[in-house]
């Protein structure tokens, strides 16, 4: 052994020499340690049979039932009256027509309200003293949307 001066760095270990194995410490502690795969506790597992001294007769595991093919739906058959989305009742057409007309009416009301607000505030601002006016584009845009949606609904009721 060589003497080292205080504060000297010890030499690094030789990486080519094998490291000693850790000593055996016994089985892992109960309650969550590592367990090797395929290790069964005594008297348990797939090959265990009841010993004759317990007085319980051995029961063979249940046999698998014979193979049955999975259920298959019968082939699709188109309905004789056409697909449900092709046949629309007269009651449904009347509802669409009513909703379309109502949507157009509400759209016109919103559009006119937006135009009215804009016209009134503009006329007040354009007076001799000047001022600020509001362009109510929100109600006008919503009115146009309702008019278009109502027209599409009305068109759908006539098809």
From TrEMBL:
Stated name of the protein: Uncharacterized protein
Entry's transmembrane regions: 103-122, 134-154
Record organism: Actinoallomurus vinaceus
Region Disordered, annotated ranges: 1-90
Biased composition (Pro residues): 8-30, 59-77
Keyword entries, A-Z: Membrane, Transmembrane, Transmembrane helix
């Amino acid at each position: 052994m060589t003497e080292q001066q205080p504060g000297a760095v010890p030499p690094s270990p030789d990486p080519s020499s094998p490291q000693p194995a850790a000593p055996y410490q016994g089985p892992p502690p109960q309650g969550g340690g590592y367990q090797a795969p395929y290790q069964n506790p005594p008297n348990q597992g797939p090959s265990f049979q009841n010993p004759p001294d317990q007085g319980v007769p051995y029961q063979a595991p249940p046999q698998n039932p014979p193979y049955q093919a999975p259920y298959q739906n019968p082939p699709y058959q188109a309905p004789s009256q056409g697909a449900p989305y092709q046949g629309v009742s007269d009651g449904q057409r009347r509802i669409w027509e009513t909703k379309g007309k109502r949507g157009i009416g509400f759209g016109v009301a919103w559009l006119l309200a937006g135009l009215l607000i804009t016209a009134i505030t503009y006329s007040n601002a354009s007076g001799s003293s000047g001022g600020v006016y509001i362009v109510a584009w929100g109600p006008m845009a919503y009115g146009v949307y309702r008019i278009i949606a109502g027209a599409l609904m009305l068109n759908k009721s006539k098809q």
